[in-house]
């Protein structure tokens, strides 16, 4: 009987391994290729009448998402929020992976509706490489705190990577309405995500620091309007208040 | 070990103790010739686990011959029975798989990332060194006032799983979990250096940042060097180094902040 249980477990493990094997061809890259694609992701193409080739590769996008997680964590750490380490890591990973997988799936669905020629892996790859602009912007602006600098980077770098993604999608879609829907959605989501990343993590930190330092300062004055982040801040400050009164 | 107690009871004038077992090994070789005659007298040599039958031998027969040499013979007789069991057993460290020479070789490989590594050193999965280095990291963090053993453990476990998945996808021949854990653990040694320097001065300034970046680079370079030589993935060292750098960057975040 134990033999049967063992055999069942082994076959389950084997099928899991076989599933991982499906992803194997997407990781077959050379460093030169990755570097070339990173640089290409910032250059919008001019030829939109001809379907542009998208490399269906997952190594670069995966590394870029992890880099974004690391940059977010670093930004949160330099703002001295040591106490909430576990939540920090979970929030960062959840945000970045959620954006990458979720928005890719959503745009893929829209592309299916708008009859665009793109596969899921290509969409994942495209959006992943589009996060390269986000990484650069956040890396610079988390260390140099000028709001105007951030806006310049937001428009410039964010705009370039968005334009590239939009151009590639336009080259693969037929019909003006469809192009507008697809590319408008993607552009909006991409730019808004960068805005969210900058302001949400910055502002939450400022809100917490203010509540810790001064009890007379109202806690909701500068906290971002994102619900899970706000609830985290609220629960932490109430826990602190309870601990202090005890 | 009830067998030992029985022997203590049987040999009245025995000055044989458990600690003398090692000496017994050395002295057995020299006493071999003399024991040869004893062997024939004591009859068939009992097998390793069968200490009880030896007790059943008529004690008078063996004792009468040994009254003249009280200190010598009980040792030899006890060695007669023990050596059958322990003769074929390897030394303790070898049995545990701890080979200090190999550990030292691997440590030197990590400490010198510019030297080309031998791909065969990672064939045996050795987790002693990595566990020691993880404990050393936790201890040096403790010296700096941070009790983060749980984080070190969790991050190394998740990091090993992630690197294992990535390496299996990127290499032609697969890797085992043990090999990945072993390499990542060995390359944690420079991080121990970083956290011990955190005890002396705070790492939150410019100097600390540069030192942390240098150590991260050192760790990931060694790890990627060992991985590429062990898995024959020649052109992809940078591609392996980057995820290792992200993982060691997490450890550096733990150390610095």
From TrEMBL, chain A:
Specify the superkingdom: Eukaryota
* Major localization listed first in the record, in broad terms: membrane
The record's gene field reads: Yipf3
Supply the name of the protein. Protein YIPF3
For the biological process aspect of GO, one term held by this record is:
cell differentiation
Give the family this protein belongs to, as stated in its UniProt record: Belongs to the YIP1 family.
In UniProt terms, what function does this protein have? Involved in the maintenance of the Golgi structure. May play a role in hematopoiesis.
* Transmembrane spans: 58-76, 88-114, 126-145, 151-171, 180-201
GO (cellular component) term, any one: Golgi apparatus
Per the record, membrane topology reads: Multi-pass membrane protein
UniProtKB/TrEMBL annotation, chain B:
Which keywords label this protein? Answer: Membrane, Transmembrane, Transmembrane helix
An annotated GO cellular component of this protein is: membrane
Q: How does it sit in the membrane?
A: Multi-pass membrane protein
Annotated protein name in UniProt: YIPF7 protein
Q: Where in the cell is it found?
A: Membrane
For this chain's UniProt record, which GO biological process terms are given?
endoplasmic reticulum to Golgi vesicle-mediated transport; vesicle fusion with Golgi apparatus
Tell me which family the UniProt entry assigns to this protein: Belongs to the YIP1 family.
State the InterPro entries in the record.
Answer: Yip1/4-like
Transmembrane parts of this sequence:
127-144, 206-227, 239-256
């Amino acid at each position: 009987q134990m033999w049967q249980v063992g055999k069942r477990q082994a076959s389950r493990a084997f099928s899991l391994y076989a599933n991982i094997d499906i992803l194997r061809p997407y990781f077959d890259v050379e460093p030169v290729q990755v570097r070339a694609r990173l640089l290409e992701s910032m250059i919008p193409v001019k030829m939109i009448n001809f379907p542009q080739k998208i490399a269906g590769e997952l190594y670069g996008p995966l590394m870029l998402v992890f880099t974004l997680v690391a940059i977010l964590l670093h930004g949160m750490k330099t703002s001295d929020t040591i106490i909430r380490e576990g939540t920090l890591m979970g929030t960062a990973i959840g945000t970045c992976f959620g954006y990458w997988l979720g928005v890719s799936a959503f745009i893929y669905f829209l592309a299916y509706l708008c009859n665009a020629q793109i596969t899921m892996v290509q969409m994942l790859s495209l959006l992943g490489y589009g996060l390269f602009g986000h990484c650069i912007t956040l890396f610079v602006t988390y260390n140099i705190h000028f709001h105007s600098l951030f806006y310049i980077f937001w428009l410039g770098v964010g705009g370039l990577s968005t334009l590239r993604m939009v151009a590639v999608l336009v080259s693969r879609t037929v019909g003006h309405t469809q192009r507008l829907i697809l590319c408008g959605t993607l552009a909006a989501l991409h730019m808004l995500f960068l805005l969210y990343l900058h302001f949400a993590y910055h502002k939450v930190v400022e809100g917490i620091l203010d509540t810790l330092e001064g009890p007379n300062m109202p806690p909701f004055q500068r906290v971002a309007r994102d619900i899970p982040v706000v609830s985290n801040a609220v629960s932490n400050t109430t826990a602190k208040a309870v601990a202090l009164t005890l | 070990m009830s067998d030992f107690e029985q022997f203590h009871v049987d040999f009245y004038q025995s000055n044989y103790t458990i600690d003398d077992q090692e000496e017994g090994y050395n002295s057995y070789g020299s006493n071999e010739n003399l024991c040869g005659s004893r062997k024939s007298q004591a009859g068939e040599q009992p097998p390793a686990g069968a200490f009880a039958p030896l007790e059943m031998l008529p004690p008078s027969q063996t004792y009468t011959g040994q009254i003249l040499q009280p200190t010598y013979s009980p040792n030899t007789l006890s060695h007669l029975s023990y050596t059958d069991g322990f003769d074929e057993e390897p030394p303790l460290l070898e049995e545990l798989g701890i080979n200090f020479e190999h550990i030292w070789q691997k440590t030197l490989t990590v400490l010198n990332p510019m030297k080309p590594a031998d791909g065969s050193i990672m064939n045996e999965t050795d987790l002693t060194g990595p566990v020691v280095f993880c404990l050393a990291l936790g201890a040096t963090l403790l010296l700096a006032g941070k009790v983060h053993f749980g984080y070190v453990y969790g991050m190394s476990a998740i990091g090993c799983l992630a690197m294992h998945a990535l390496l299996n996808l990127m290499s032609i021949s697969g890797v085992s979990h043990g090999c990945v854990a072993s390499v990542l653990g060995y390359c944690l040694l420079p991080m121990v250096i970083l956290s011990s320097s955190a005890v002396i001065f705070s790492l939150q300034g410019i100097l600390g940042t540069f030192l942390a970046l240098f150590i991260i680079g050192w760790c990931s370079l060694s790890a990627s060097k060992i991985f590429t030589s062990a898995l024959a993935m020649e052109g992809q060292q940078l591609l392996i180094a980057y995820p290792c750098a992200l993982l060691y960057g997490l450890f550096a975040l733990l150390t610095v902040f």
